[in-house]
């Protein structure tokens, strides 16, 4: 009797839900339909993969941001103002709270990186209520640069299970492998990709500064895999990513890759350094041959383009004029950043040096009046193209100092990872994160989900792997102690 009653109740509920969904669909309301469809898809995905919903979604958005970039970041169901990052973050936080209540353990680990990152988030949260009263939803929008850091804690928890970590790393690998081909195709046929829309937004829209950071990160990601597995396809992907950094017209990614290669020297990752040095030598020979190749009048060689791109990084006065066609805007681009940085730094120092100007404050207002004094164009960018300056402007010296502590811990852990796993690219997951952070100091990268989700997730995975390496090293040392004690007793008189 009880089972029959349950079946009838379930049937009645299904019929009622179908009627409500049908009514909403007929009236053009897709909110409930989207929620039910998403729930059904997650149940099917869990049944097929045996992965938790947040882990499965986390892997999907990693792939989506790597390939779709800015286009994927703007996707949303009509009538549902929820973007992919925020949707997965909401699901992940809810499930993390539920797991913490069930297992009586927090998703926060007792180490310096967790504590300093929590302190940085706390500084931002402390001033958010005041900023929300002043600026409304704009404060929440700007606070995204802070709340995306919750992906660090989610990824750290996801990585505890080998199956989950394997899924996330496979999604990262697949996305990184397609980053360069997607960028090249988008650069060649932009109108085609802009026509591939979902609910009015292009599915793939590539920003060169964000994609360039991914390519630089891919060099270390695939190089680490080659040193670990000795499989030639990984080596080919290292070459693809390195070529992508050169051709993507992003000087920030070139600079980041150079810092990473020099970093390998300080980390004493000799095998990794020699591998990239060999690639640089082969690339140099190719560029020399390309210079001698006949070309139409007025067309610059790739070697000249690379030289002028690197030289323009230090052209602060804008006095040098590149001859390469796609580098003509670089002097003005340098001046654009320098003027904006100086304006924001001066404004913040004068009016909010300790706690910042707040989330929601228009950091572009004074800059636009200075740099575009005679222009009537609508300027919508809110970040001064430097994540550290953005932190100072929003959270003052207090927030910048705490984030400086986060970076100091990252430097220490990058060093320790290289020492724990000698000459096998153990620092590569950390260098992956550094590539994105360095590019974020010259562009709008970590203020949006395209770069922030990848950065914070990878940082969480790197920290989880580092903790495992330390634990394995401690266990190995403990296992050796009885044998060492036995040897000492044997030789004792």
Which stretches of 5+ consecutive residues score pLDDT under 50?
Answer: 474-493
Distance between the termini: 83 Å
**What pattern of helices and strands is seen along the backbone?**
HHHHHHHHHEEHHHHHHHHHH
Largest sheet descriptor: 2 strands, antiparallel
Biggest sheet strand line-up: 1-2
Radius of gyration: 25 Å
Provide the helix percentage: over 70%
Broad structural category? mainly alpha
Average pLDDT, rounded to a whole number, is 85
Secondary structure tally, helices: 19
Task: List how many beta strands DSSP finds.
Answer: 2
Percentage of residues in strands? under 5%
Q: Can you put this structure into words, describing what you see?
A:
This protein is mostly helical and 493 residues long. 75% of the residues lie in helices and 1% in strands. It has 19 helices and 2 strands. The protein has a two-stranded antiparallel ribbon with strand order 1-2. Helix 8 (162-188) crosses helix 11, helix 10 runs antiparallel to helix 11 and helix 10 packs antiparallel against helix 18 (428-439). The longest helix has 43 residues, at 449-491. The protein is globular. The chain starts with a helix and ends with a helix. The relative contact order is 0.11. The model is unreliable at 474-493 (pLDDT under 50).
């Amino acid at each position: 009797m009880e089972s029959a009653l349950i079946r009838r109740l379930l049937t009645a509920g299904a019929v009622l839900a179908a009627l409500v969904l049908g009514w909403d669909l007929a009236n053009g309301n897709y909110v409930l339909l989207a929620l039910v469809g998403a729930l059904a898809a997650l149940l099917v995905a869990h049944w097929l993969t045996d992965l938790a919903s947040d882990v499965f979604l986390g892997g999907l958005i990693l792939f989506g941001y790597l390939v779709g970039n800015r286009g994927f970041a703007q996707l949303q169901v009509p009538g549902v103002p929820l973007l992919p990052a925020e949707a997965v973050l909401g699901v992940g936080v809810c499930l993390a709270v539920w797991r913490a209540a069930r297992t009586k353990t927090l998703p926060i680990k007792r180490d310096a990186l967790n504590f300093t990152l929590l302190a940085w988030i706390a500084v931002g949260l402390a001033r958010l209520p005041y900023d929300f009263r002043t600026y409304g939803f704009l404060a929440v929008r700007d606070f995204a640069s802070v709340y995306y850091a919750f992906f660090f804690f989610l990824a750290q928890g996801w990585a505890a299970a080998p199956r989950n970590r394997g899924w996330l790393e496979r999604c990262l690998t697949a996305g990184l492998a397609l980053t360069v081909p997607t960028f090249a195709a988008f650069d060649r046929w932009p109108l085609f990709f802009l026509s591939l829309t979902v609910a009015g937004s292009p599915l793939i829209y590539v920003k060169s500064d964000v994609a360039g950071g991914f390519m630089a990160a891919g060099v270390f990601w695939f190089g680490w895999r080659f040193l670990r597995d000795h499989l030639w396809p990984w080596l080919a992907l290292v070459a693809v990513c390195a070529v992508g950094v050169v051709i993507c017209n992003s000087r920030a990614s070139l600079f980041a890759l150079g810092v990473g290669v020099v970093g390998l020297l300080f980390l004493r990752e000799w095998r990794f350094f020699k591998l990239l040095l060999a690639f640089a030598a082969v690339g140099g020979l190719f560029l020399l041959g390309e210079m001698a190749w006949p070309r139409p009048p007025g067309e610059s060689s790739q070697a000249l383009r690379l030289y002028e791109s690197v030289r323009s990084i230090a052209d602060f006065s804008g006095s040098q004029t590149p001859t390469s066609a796609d580098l003509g805007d670089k002097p003005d681009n340098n001046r654009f950043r320098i003027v904006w940085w100086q304006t924001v730094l001066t404004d913040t120092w004068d009016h909010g040096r300790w706690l910042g100007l707040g989330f929601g404050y228009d950091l572009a207002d004074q800059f636009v009046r200075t740099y575009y004094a005679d222009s009537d164009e609508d300027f919508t960018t809110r970040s001064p193209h430097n994540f550290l300056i953005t932190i100072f402007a929003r959270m003052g010296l207090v927030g910048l100092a705490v984030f400086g502590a986060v970076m100091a811990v990252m430097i220490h852990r990058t060093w320790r990872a290289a020492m724990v796993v000698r000459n096998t690219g153990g620092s590569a997951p950390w260098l992956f994160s550094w590539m994105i952070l360095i590019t974020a100091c010259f562009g709008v990268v970590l203020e949006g989900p395209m770069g922030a989700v990848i950065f914070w997730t990878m940082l969480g995975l790197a920290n989880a792997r580092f903790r495992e390496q330390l634990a394995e090293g401690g266990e190995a040392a403990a296992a050796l102690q009885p044998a060492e004690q036995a040897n000492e007793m044997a030789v004792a008189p």
